[in-house]
Write a structure and sequence with these properties.
Chain lengths: ~350, ~200, ~900
Amino acid sequence: MALIQISSPHVQRPTKTADIMRLVILATLPGLLAMTFFFGWGTLINVVLASVFALLFEALCTAARKRPVGFFLKDNSALLTGILLALAIPSFAPWWVTLTGVFFAIVIAKQLYGGLGQNPFNPAMVGYALLLISFPVEMTRWTAPFDINGNSWNILSFADTFSIIFGIGASDPSVLLNLDAHTGATPLDTLKHRNGLTTEELWQSSSVLANAGAWYAVSFGYFVGGIFLIYRKIFTWHTPITLLVTLAIVSSIGFAIDPDSFADPFVHLTTGATMLGAFFIATDPVSSATSNRGKIIFAAGIAILVYVIRTWGNYPDAMAFAVMIMNLCAPFIDQYSQPRSYGHKKANTLSSGGK
Amino acid sequence: MTIIIAVSVLLGLAIIFGLVLGFSAIKFHVEGNPIVDQIDSILPQTQCGQCGHPGCRPYAESIAEGEAINKCPPGGQATIEALADLLDVEVLELDGEHDENPIKTIAYIREDECIGCTKCIQACPVDAILGAAKQMHTVITDECTGCDLCVAPCPVDCIDMLPIPTTLNTWKWQAPQPYQTHSKNLIATDKQPAVETLS
Amino acid sequence: MSKVFAFHGGIHPPENKHQSTQSVIAKGPIAKTLYVPLQQHIGVAAKPCVNVGDTVLKGQRIADAQGKFSVPIHAPSSGVVTSIGERSVPHPSGMPGLCISIETDGLDQWIEHSGLADYPTLGKDKLIDYICDRGIAGMGGAGFPTAVKLHLGDDHIVNTLIINAAECEPYITADDLLMRERAEQIISGIGVLQFLLEPSHIIIGIEDNKPQAIRALEIAIQDCKHNIDVVSVPTKYPSGGEKQLIKLLTNIEVPHGGIPADVGIVCQNVGTVYAIHRAVQYGESLISRIVTVTGDGVKKPQNYDTLIGTPFATLLDAAGYIKENTHRLIVGGPMMGYSIQDDQIPVVKTSNCIIASTREEMPEQPPSQACIRCGMCEQVCPVQLLPQQLHWFAKGQEYQKAEQHNLFDCIECGACSYVCPSNIPLVQYYRHAKTTIREEQQEKRKSDLARERFEAKQMREQRAVEEKAAKRKARAEQAAKAQAEKKQQAQEVESTQGVDQQQLLKNTLKEAKLAVAKIEQEITNNSGTEQAETISAQDIKLQKAKAAVEQAKQAIVKSTQATAPIIDIKKLKREAAMANTKLSKAKQALKTAQEKDQPGVEQLAATIETLSKQADEANNAFENAQQENPAEKTTSTAPAAKPKAMDADSKKLKTAAAIARTKLKKAQTALQSAMDNGDDTEQLSQDIKLLEDKLNKAQSAYEQSQNATSSTQTSTASSASETSGDSSHVDIKKLKTAAAIARTKLKKAQSQLDKLTDDESNSDDGAALKAEVATLEQKVEQTQAHYLKHKLAQPADSQSTESDASQRQEDYEKALKLYTKAMTALDKAREQNSPHVEKMTTSIEKLKRKLDDAQAALPDQNTAANSNNDDNNQSQV
């Protein structure tokens, strides 16, 4: 056998990019199951739909860029983007919303920037933000969790959900007309549009907040998935834990100052996209900061922005915008957060100020 | 009266500022043109004259006066980029009439055939050729810049421009080949930086 | 007991050490031939001190150290030196290096050697020199000359001596086995180091995956008086890196750009310590080392005490090499070792391991994907760099940024590549970037040097010009002074009669000359533009003006002849010189015109001829005047003057020949460029032919004149024959040059022809060119014939005859080459059904005839040489 000549090292750890992506996808399962359990089939259908679209767009783009299609599809990155986007949008979002979002995420935010590893923004969040701005009605059509409709597991049937998403073939046409019957405000919506009530009053009056258990469960699902990923060393603790801790601290300060008009830290941590964002969005390595110190700065920035936008901004939730703003800052954070290398007295900060 | 005061005040101010300016012009006078030195330090110093100037410094001077930066074949694209960076001008392709020779060469005299005419010695801009009239000449390889100015004057064509051989000490790790199957690029970032040729 | 600290990052690759620790260290086989590279250490390569054919004994020095950063090399076994030359050496490039090959005699006979029983009495410096003489260099991997490190005690305070026994690379067990089996000897070696460096504390750093070795060392240090600690560090790659081990054991970081001694630490590999022990105790040089032979490509992985220079194949065979299964051969460990392509590469002082791995064991890396900035590389980097940033910079060739990100702190341990999920060959990027940066720095240095030299040259030239100008000025002043004096004298002597007339005539002459100069100027200017008519018109003007000048001159001559013959001669001389200058000027104009390929050329040439005639006339007049003035010249000098004049004449002819040659060259270049443009090449080639004829004529004229000169000289005086010999000698040299030039030209033309015959479209040009080539060939033959003739005429010693013969041989070879070339061209043409086949065949026949001639000339060389000598004898008589 002919001897080959290549550079060292000659052994490699078997964990590959595709494995990492697969593990992240696996880690979304608890959250996905919780979503499906409490909010119906919509999310599941969306996930499947978005995955198919994502793979399709990825394949088209790689083919157009004359790259080996199979090689790039197998890295699972497009699949993950699709799934994350599907998890972020409301479960009753029509199919074309998903399509538009995935198109933006894969084609505009990722492939046009050069594909995997080159995109400055988190693709899923670009897609989500676009949808949120473009289709405010569809994007706020959050399903009410089942326990509002009684104490039994009572959600819209798979067929009905399917017909809502695709707008056709409903067994009961009234489902489409009475869509609003199945949707409702989220806890963050409720806290945002409080109609002059204090937080405490809201807690007492709002059925959404009183029965927020479904959202807690979903957040717990993501939390479990995230801890699993840290355990598997897919990412370090720096980003998610810093994000959660900072958010808790900031919201505690707000709550301590004026408990009547600010939500408590628990709500901030457990509702909305906090857990999904902390463990699955902000940790996206491509668009986040690099060094450990950088990650801490990056995550803290996201947490503060999330709180600010949630409290004073126009949107009830803010994960997408906060992440994207910090994505913008990531290169600068990288610049100023280089670690101190072995043998150096202090870290490089002014790395490449002037060339 | 007020007019006189105003005029005199203004005049006084003008004189003061004029003095300050004149003083600082002398005090902070900058010797030479440092930009020329900076340009000159970027140029490869082969002194080959392919830019149409007798040596690198004259070219540096005329670049400082606005001549195109793409006339240096020995420096190649890298020099053009460095110059563009320094002068904050657009990166140009290497001037069409000069083609870049990416393989660095140095001159060797076939010493059997040398007739000792000293023409190459006179042509060499960096004094890298040794010899005397009617004596065999030889090139100091360490000093040769590969400008090939000595090739043309040789009446017996005994000077060869040979690529610098790679030794164990000068051997260089090759850059990894990027995984790319097609040369056509749909988007800008697909373009790979030019892979350096292995010398 | 020392505390153990931690360093950042690190990885835990599969160890794969158990395979080769199953059996004890075996004695390696003695290979039939040992290849001992001269460069086995960092620094300057050793210089061979044996010759091919020498018999060497085991341990005999075969190469000397060169300078401080070098160590000598010793024969690993007894035998005969068979060659000293380039062979494959262990280097990632796979390039060859200088090796001494020793054919072993199997006796393995030691040279006489003995240890230093009481080294403390020897003194430190001598002991260090002794260690250096035994060829000891670091055996951990880099091969740093040990003696250099031992001298560190001189200018640094060494607190801690660290013995590096970590051996963190997977697969390698050489140090492990060494410590298990030879712990006492290692401790003895440490004793030597203790004496030399006097550290207060000695730590043996060893990874905790070698419990047996730790036990063996602990037993060995029990009755040791030195302060030695055996510290086990957690198994983590790369804890064996010098800087990492120092951090682990002392929590001190070696500063960037510094060495461990800067922080009071010296590090030595355990294998080196053992080698020091062997050297000091027994006087054995470093000629063997322990090499781990492992991997799935061998049946019985094991450690071998192997002679330096043993080819890896021999070693692998001893371990049961399964060549067909082996996919990669790695020297060193799998993390930092390099793959080799040739299993005949020898073991050197730094080779600690050879891994023969199968494809399954170390599969080829899949193609690398895009970096997803996952940061895993950063987590494992033992130097705490940002590997993915460095990768971006290296990939984007932003080397300056890479440098700012501390690229040069990278130890190339490979941990980042190991964990990279996208299979990016990070280490290769860094290595490439590092070497490129170093190269750039080198180039920068070189260009600075070039600038300095260029500026120095410019200054020198400027100075020379200034000096020349100053000298010229001084000379002119002197001349003016002399002139004034002479004038005064002349005025005193001369009668007033005729002076006015002369003055008048002189003025006319001056005016006429000015007019000529003006016209000439115009011609030169106009020859640039394409106004042939004006040129010819101006030519006529010029000629008229010239005629006027001539008349004036003659008038002056007539008028002055009677009054002042001396002045007259001088004037004539000046005039002759002037005529010459004019001639050369006109020639210059002709050249420019010829370059521009203009119809005015012929007219100009005619002008030049006239001018040269004039010059000749002037010269003749001058000579006549000189001869007619016997009052000035004594009779004895008169005959001497004649050959002088002849000499001058021949010189002129020579210049003419040279000019003709230059013209020919230029015309040829013009032809080539015209050919490229596809212009009327035939006309040009005819021009060239004409020029060539001219050249030939000029040359023959020159030769004739030369002959004439020599003949006159021989006739006038017997002593002159020597001069003649000399001059003909010079002449031959010149002819040789001419021949060389002609040959070069021929070569050029030939290559042009080849190019054209390849290119069918240019067939017409091809024919013209062929004709040209034929002429050139003839010319070459002529020149060579001339050359030979002169050779014959020259008093030749045996050497020149030899060179003559070799010349013929060369001619023959050249002809043969031409012939084969032509044949190939013909074949090609035939293949392409070219219409020139016939022509080519004829030319090839011609070539063949020439070849035959040359061949015929070849066997005759001896007789020719003899006749040569005869001729010479005759001519001398």
